[in-house]
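Justification of computing resources. Each target in the renewal requires a structure prediction run like the one illustrated here; the chain below, 329 residues long, is used simply to show the kind of job we budget for.
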Amino acid sequence: MLDDLTTAVPSPASWPAAYPKGYAVVDVETTGLARDDRIISAAVYRLDARGEVEDHWYSTVNPERDPGPVWIHGLTSEALEGAPLFQDIAEEFTTRLEGRVLVAHNAVFDWQMIAREYARAKREAPVRQRLCTIALSKELGLPLPNHKLESLAAHFGVVQQRAHHALDDARVLAEAFRPSLRAAAESGVRLPLLECRPLTEWSDRPAPRIGQQAGYGGYGPSSWRPARKRPACPYPNPGRYEAGGRLRQGMRVAFSGDTSVERDLLEDRATEAGLHVATSLSRLTSLLVTNDPDSGTSKVVKARQFGTPVVDEAAFGQLLADVEPASEG
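Resulting structure tokens:
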């Protein structure tokens, strides 16, 4: 087990009263990036209200299937065969997460993987808010060349020992989060907290079981993230959304950035309402949904260039409740 963090970071004399009372800095390694992939290792660093480390925990997890990209995480079928199932560590994991804000790098991914595992185990993930360190670095205006964990770590002089090992990734992130949190407190920055809505039920598609590692169960360096195909929208595009108006069936909707509701579910709702879910943004896009309109992502930049209307997730949810039917004929 790796040593606790020892670097001393001065704490501001005053601390924002609205800040959370504790954090769980999390990293999970997985069999892949798709919705049916599984967690194979998890680590948590518990931090107090001011970012001081309380303890840390790590466990491998038997995914009951092929481990996926072994060349990335290094965990083979043999290494995972005797590991506990997620349902066996769920209680301990709950103890580590409960009552705290989940902190992760690209937090929506870690949160979704955790929420799904709890749902499979017929439990509810004990997380109500999450904080993405990518979003926090943007709020702080850190001069990073990109938003990789290694760049954030380098900015704060944190040395990575074992990349893509859950415990070391969590340690690195915790060590980079501490000065970030203090900088935010000193500047009175509002933390970019997002709501977490746990899943209550789940069903998996059949997947390669652990031990069927030949050919990585059909996985390869360029194929282990399967695309999610949707049926074609049956309605013509009626044009752009107009502020204050209603969505109309056939409108092209694109999404960008982190969302409180799992992205797959948001897209499913949009599709069911008769909207065309677009994976990219063009001059034909009717609406962009993003909680971070200043993010600088390619979709946000194009939306500005094209004059595409932009709304946040909450407003989009309200619009979905009253979608106008497509024009007949």
